[in-house]
Amino acid sequence: MKKNQLRDLSIAxxxxxxxxxxxALENLRFQKALQQLENPLKIRQVxxxxxxxxxxxxxxxLGIGPKNNRGN
Length: 72
Hints:
By secondary structure, the protein is mainly α. The protein has a single domain, classed as Helix Hairpins, CATH 1.10.287. The chain contains 4 helices and no strands. It has helices at residues 3-7, 11-33, 41-62, 66-69. Helix 2 packs antiparallel against helix 3. The longest helix is centred in the first third of the chain and has 23 residues, at 11-33.
């Protein structure tokens, strides 16, 4: 998901997505340990999405980002 799409979501939706992705990452790491992981790049994608969600949440907490700069 793109950052612009993430910025359009509510805080509750972002937190729910974050928890889902953290759970998915744990499952992927478990599959990797058991050598059952079909697509190793999926781990990178999930980690990147977690980082993007955390960034958008931090921006919202600090009051920065495109939504707050539109009036300028």
